[in-house]
C-alpha cells in the first residue's frame, strides 16, 4: 500500500515538473522585484505582459491557481502531499504565483471555515478566477491593538444593513472591488460579542477611500470610509455577533504569513551581500569586525528560526500544537526581518541612503528598510504578540 | 528526517527525568558541594550504569546499545535540568565518543567494557590556555622506539581528579593526535581546581610521560578530522545540557512570578516582567530546535554536523547567559542568596558556556565556515 502511494506521488512529481517546464514562460520564472510584478486580478484586471496572461490562463485551466481547494469551489482538489510537491516544483523552477490575492490567502480560508455552502459556491470560484480584488477592513483609527473595540456600525434595516464608520490600513483599498469587514452589530454586548463579519462591494454608494503615504514614500494602505452604505443581509458570513471568532482565526493565519511561515521565496544570505560590498582583510574575513559579528549573530538566529518552523510543523503533525505559537512566529519573524534590513543598511553605508525622486525606480533598499518598520506593528504589534504568549502559553496572570 | 524525537527517545528522556528528579535533584548537588565539594555520588553513577546510559553511544559490535547521540542528548538535557553531577560528560560524551571515533581496534576492544561498566573513567585533556581552541597545541608527543614521550600541560580537564584514563590531544610532528594515558603514569602532576559550579576540574602537567604507541587513538584516521568530529559531539552534547539548564531556570522563574506578591498583587501580572519572560520563552524555542538538529546531524553523519554544532553552542551560550541573568533579576533579592537554587543555574551555566568554546568562539567559527 505504502509503496503504491509513493509510486503515484513520484509519478505526480515527474508529470508536474514536465508540465511546469513546458507551460511556465521564462519571464514568469524571474524573481519578483515589486508586488505589482504579479497579477492581482479584479474587475479592472490588467496583465503586465502576454507571458503573464498566458501563465495565469494555463494555470486556471489546469485548476492550479488554488490547487488545494475542492474542485466544486474551483480548486484543483490536490491532496496536501500533492500540493507540497507542486509548491516544491514551482519553487525549484522559480515559478511566480499566477495570481496574488488576499482572496486566496485570507478570505478563502475564512469562507471555507465559516460560510454557508451557497456562499462558498458563489465567492470561492470568483476568487480562483481572479474576478474580484479583495481587501481587508479590520483596524480603525481608534481600534488598532485593541481591535475588538471597533466602532464601525451596521444597523439592521430589515432587508439590509446600513453601515457607517471608517477603516484604516486597508491594503490597496483604492484598487479593490470588495472588502471583507468587521462591523459592530450589537452595541449592548461586551466588546468581543457584538462583532460580525460582512462582505461589502466597494462600488456601493457611500464607500470612499484615501491612500495613506508611508515613510517609505509608497502607499500600499488606505483609509476607507462608509457613509450609510446599504449591504444585503446575505453578505453576512457566519453567525450574527460571532465575527470575533472569524477575526481571531484570520489573525492567526495572517500572523503566520507575516512571520514567514509558508513563504517560498529564497532570501539572499546577508553575508553574500556583505562579501560583495565590503572590504576584506588578507585572510578573506570582513575587515569591519563588529559588523562581521553582527552578521554572524543574525544568520545564526535566522537559520535556527527556520529550523524552529520545521520543528513546530513536524510537532503539529503528531498533534502537539499550540495556536498561540503563531504569535511567537509573528513576533520573532518580523523582528528578524527588521534586523536583516538594519544590517543591509549598515553594509550599504552611504550608498544605502539613496532615496531619489521616483519611488517606483529609486531608493529600493532605503524604502524597504522604512517599510520593514511596519512589520512589527501590522497584524498585531510585537507587544500584543508578547501579551498573547504570556497569557496563553506561559499562563501568567492578568490583573 | 522530522525534527522531533522518536517514541523510544521520548521514553529514554522520561526515564532520565524520573531517575534524576528522584535520586539526583538539586538538593543532592547542594549536599555534595557542602561535603567538601565531592565530585559526584558513586551510587548514582552505578544507577546510571544499570540504566545503560554508559553504553548508549557504544556500537553494538562492542556490546553497546548504539542508541545514538539524540538519546544521549536527552539525558544530558535532564542532567542540566537537575544539575546532577556524574562523569557522564567526561567519560561518556567525551571519552566513549573519542573511542567510538578511533580506528585503533585493539584499544576499543580493551577499553569499552570498563567504560560501559563504569569501573573505568575517561576524560579529555585538550584545553591549554584560558579559552578553548583546537588549532594550536603546545603539548607534544615524540616517538622514541616503541613509545611516545609526552610533554606539555592541560587545563579545564573535567573530572580530572577522578578519571583513571586521560585522552590527551597532542602534536606529533605537525599532525594532531590523541593518546590514551594512564592517570598514574610517572611524570604526571594533577592539580585539583574547584570551579564556580562546585565541580572538580584539573590542571595537568605532563613531563616526559612515556606512553605505548599502542595507545594512539588515531592510527590512519586523520587527526584534524578526528578532532573536528569529536568536537562536533562535544559542542552538541554540552549544548543539550545548557538547554536543560535554560528550561529549568526558566520554569523556576515563571513559577516564582506566579507566586510572589508585592504591592498586593502577584508580580507576574506586571507587563514589564511578562514581556521579559516571553523573550526568554522565544529564545528557548529556538534553542530546542538547534540542539535537536545538531544531535540528529551526528547520528545521520550529516556533512554539515560541525556547522550545526557551532550553531548550537553559539546560540545556547548566548541564551544561557540571558536566561540565567534574567532568572536572578526576576527573582529579586532572594535570587542572590545561597538558599535559593536559582543561583546554581547561573554558576553551572557560566562553566558550561566556557567549556568547549564560548559564544564568541563559535560565532567566529560560523563566519569562517561561511567564508567571511
Kindly describe this structure.
The complex is a heterodimer of chains A (399) and B (372). Chain A has helices at residues 2-23, 50-62, 80-93, 102-114, 117-128, 243-258, 270-277, 289-317, 325-348, 364-372, 382-392; strands spanning 134-137, 153-156, 160-171, 178-184, 195-201, 207-212, 221-232, 236-237. Helices cover 43% and strands 14% of the residues of chain A. In chain A, β6 (207-212) and β7 (221-232) form a beta hairpin. Chain A is built from eleven helices and eight strands. Chain A has 399 residues and is α+β, with helices and mostly antiparallel strands. Chain A folds into three domains: 2-100, Butyryl-Coa Dehydrogenase, subunit A, domain 1; 134-246, Beta Barrel (Butyryl-CoA Dehydrogenase, subunit A, domain 2); 259-392, Butyryl-CoA Dehydrogenase, subunit A, domain 3 (Up-down Bundle). In chain A, the strands form two sheets. In chain A, strands 1-4-5-8 form a four-stranded mixed sheet. In chain A, strands 2-3-7-6 form a four-stranded antiparallel sheet, with no helix packed on it. Chain A starts with a helix and ends in a 7-residue tail after the last helix. Chain B is globular, with a radius of gyration of 21 Å. The model of chain B has no long low-confidence stretch (mean pLDDT 97). Chain B has helices at 7-23, 26-34, 42-50, 69-82, 88-101, 105-117, 223-259, 271-299, 305-331, 342-354, 359-369, and strands at residues 122-125, 140-144, 147-158, 165-172, 175-182, 188-194, 200-212, 261-262, 265-266. Chain B folds into three domains: 7-120, Acyl-CoA dehydrogenase/oxidase, N-terminal domain (Butyryl-Coa Dehydrogenase, subunit A, domain 1, Orthogonal Bundle); 123-215, Butyryl-CoA Dehydrogenase, subunit A, domain 2 (Beta Barrel), CATH 2.40.110.10; 223-369, Butyryl-CoA Dehydrogenase, subunit A, domain 3 (Up-down Bundle), CATH 1.20.140.10. With 372 residues, chain B is an alpha+beta fold. At the A-B interface, α7, α8, α9 and α11 of A face α7, β9, α8, α9 and α11 of B.
